[in-house]
Design goal:
This protein is α/β, with parallel strands linked by helices and about 325 residues long. It has two domains: about 140 residues, Nucleotidyltransferase, domain 5 (2-Layer Sandwich), CATH 3.30.420.300; about 180 residues, Nucleotidyltransferase, domain 5, CATH 3.30.420.310. It has ten helices and 16 strands. The strands form three sheets. Strands 1, 2, 3, 4, 6, 7, 8 and 9 form an eight-stranded mixed sheet that branches. It has a five-stranded mixed sheet with strand order 14-13-12-15-16, with helices on both faces. The protein has a three-stranded mixed sheet with strand order 5-10-11, with no helix packed on it. Helix 3 packs across helix 10. The longest helix has 15 residues. The two termini are about 20 Å apart.
């Protein structure tokens, strides 16, 4: 069949989708087999074990995310911003392989290659079926601010997919998480972006600071009032280095119940992230994250007078599919 095998291979998780020739997702799979769980040289075997049956039916596989990092399958160098589909497609890192189900943990069994002839190979699944599958890893993006580089891997595909799904060419896109990304897209291209260690700072303060003695062991349900209070305090204050201590003092003076404190701290760090953004009241941003995170950013951005449009997990598949459509069609094997 024609179509695409789309993979999002991250640090701690692996998602895949079989996409038909019309761009429709036929089936999805998810595993807790991120790159950190793969032994050295083991990527071809993991790929064959988890997706060999799909690979036997499809002509092309595109892999986004940390599989292209130095710790991944094969490093795919970052592509410079501004970047659009054509720029990313021109920077794909192609792979050549032997029969991956039999290659074992040998790092030489699948090597990077730019040779057009090596971009086609027979991949044998457990079923014994073969197909002239071509595999490429999508490069991440980099940009610079004040002489300091910033990078992303995988988020670029999500952004491109969200623009397609929402019918946008210009947008501010937010990808919240451990390392949140704020992305500026113009004319369908990613112009620039900035990373914020919001989720990681929350975890560090939550678990490894004096505040951990004040906070309950579990976060519990979101307390919207406490969260919004934290956002407001962050927006009118100078720095999270000062506001974070209020988690302790509000508890000390019994002005906030312990179960509300995690939501308040979350509001402080997300509010700090928002405080750094040049946002105009009445504007709109696209938020790409879980329902829980999207709700928090919607509540926080409302205090800046900003509307939110949500884009879900299908954006990754849409982005990889759209990228595949910018490439030259595969040649028949020689």
């Amino acid at each position: 069949m024609s179509g695409l095998l789309a993979l999002d291979w991250g640090t701690t998780s692996l998602r895949g989708a079989m996409i038909d020739g019309e761009g429709r997702v036929v089936e999805e799979r998810a595993f807790a087999t991120g790159i950190l769980a793969v032994p050295p040289g083991g990527f071809p075997q993991v790929f064959a074990d988890l997706f060999g049956d799909w690979a036997a039916q499809l002509p092309l596989c595109l892999i986004s995310g940390m599989a292209g990092s130095k710790q991944g399958w094969v490093e795919a160098p970052y592509c410079a911003c501004p970047a659009g589909f054509a720029d990313v497609a021109a920077s794909l890192r192609w792979l050549a392989a032997a029969d991956t189900c039999h290659c074992g943990p040998d790092p030489q069994s699948m090597v990077a290659s730019g040779d057009a002839a090596s971009r086609q190979h027979g991949l044998r699944s457990r079923s014994g079926m073969t197909a002239p599958l071509r595999i490429a890893i999508v490069p991440g993006l980099f940009c610079e601010h004040d002489g300091v580089p910033d990078v992303m891997r995988g988020e670029e595909v999500q952004v491109f997919g969200a623009l397609q799904l929402l019918g946008l060419s210009d947008a501010t896109v937010v990808l919240p998480g451990t390392h949140s990304k704020w992305v500026q897209a113009r004319a369908g291209r990613i112009e620039e972006f900035r990373s914020f260690m919001t989720g990681e700072f929350y975890a560090l303060l939550r678990q490894h600071s004096i505040l951990s003695r004040t906070l309950p062991s579990q976060d519990g349900e979101l307390d919207e009032a406490a969260f919004s209070q934290g956002v407001a305090h962050a927006l009118r204050s100078a720095s999270v280095l000062q506001t974070a201590f209020s988690v302790r003092t509000l508890s000390l003076f019994e002005r906030m119940p312990a179960q509300a404190a995690p939501s308040y701290l979350s509001g402080l760090v997300i509010g700090e992230e928002l405080r750094a953004q040049p946002l105009d009241g009445g504007g709109e941003v696209v938020v790409m994250g879980s329902e829980a995170l999207t709700l928090r950013y919607k509540l926080a951005l409302a205090q800046r007078g900003i509307r939110v449009r949500a884009a879900g997990s299908q954006a990754t598949w849409q982005g990889l599919w759209a990228l595949s459509q910018t490439m030259e069609p595969p040649h028949d094997p020689a």
